[in-house]
Amino acid sequence: METSHFTSGAPAVVITRVAQRLWHALADDRVIGRCEATTRPDGRIFVSIDAWHRSVFDQLADAMVTQLRGPLHTIVDEADAELTAGWERAGFTLRRREWEYSVPTGAGPVLAPPGVTIVPRGSASEGPLRALDRVVRAEVEAAVGWQEMPAEVLPHPPGDTVVDPALYAAAADAGEYVGLVRVVQVPRLPRIGLIAVRADHRRRGIARALLAEVLGSLHAAGIPAASAEVNEANPAATALFEGAGAHRVSSNLELVRHGE
C-alpha cells in the first residue's frame, strides 16, 4: 500500500536490497519502508513504495531507479497530490489518465444487430474465444499498441491470454465469434476488464449488446453496479459506458520513468 500522507521528520535509515526487486528501509533494525517492482503480464514493470516518511520514500525511490533499468511505471490516485509529487521527484512523468467508472446494472436489455447472437457469460466455447482474443490483441497492437490498454493483472502463461473462459460473454456472427467482454469478480464489485469487437464488425452496436448482456446478468444476480476503467484518450469506450449510464467516480494516473 502506498501511503498518501507522509509524516514529518527525517529518520536515519539504511536502504537494503533484500531481493531482486525488493528494497527495505531499516531504522534501528526495523523495517519502516519498502519498495517493490513487479512485471505485469503485458511486460511493463510497475513499482510501488510503502513509506510513511517523505525522506524514506525518496531514498527508496532513488535506490530503486538507480538499480533497475527503465521504463518503470506506477499507478496513483489522481486525488493524491502528495504521492504524485513524490513520484515526480523521482523522475516520473504523466503517461496517461484512466477514468474509473461506476456502471449501473439495471438499464435493461439491448438488441443485438441482425445476424448477431450474444453468448451469455460462462457459455462461450473456449476454442473460438481464444482465437478471437488473439485477433483482437493483434489488431490493437497494430493500431495504438497494447500498452495503451489498462494494465492487466491477470496472470497467464506466455501466449495464453484467456485465463478463464467462464469470465467471458461473446458475440457470434455467421458461426464465428466477433466480440467479447470479460467480467472479473473482485472483492469490492465486479470489474469489466475488457470489451472488444473485431475491427471489421465495429460500429454495428455489438459492444453495446455485449455490455448490456453482462450488466443484465449481474442485475439478475442482485448486484447493483460494476466498475470499469477507461483511458481518457479512448472516446469510443467513454461513449459506450456513459451511454449505459455509467458515471465517473475517480481517476488514476499512470506515471512512467524512462531509462537513462
UniProtKB/TrEMBL annotation:
- Domain of life, per the record? Bacteria
- Domain N-acetyltransferase residue range list: 133-260
Alphabetized Pfam families for the sequence: Acetyltransf_1 (PF00583)
CDD domains hit by this protein = NAT_SF
Q: Which UniProt keywords apply?
A: Acyltransferase, Transferase
Q: What are the GO MF terms of this UniProt record?
A: acyltransferase activity, transferring groups other than amino-acyl groups
Give the signal peptide range. Answer: none
Q: Which InterPro entries match?
A: Acyl_CoA_acyltransferase, Bact_Acetyltransf, GNAT_dom
Question: Entry's PANTHER family?
Answer: ACETYLTRANSFERASE, AMINOALKYLPHOSPHONATE N-ACETYLTRANSFERASE-RELATED-RELATED
Question: What is this protein's record name?
Answer: N-acetyltransferase domain-containing protein
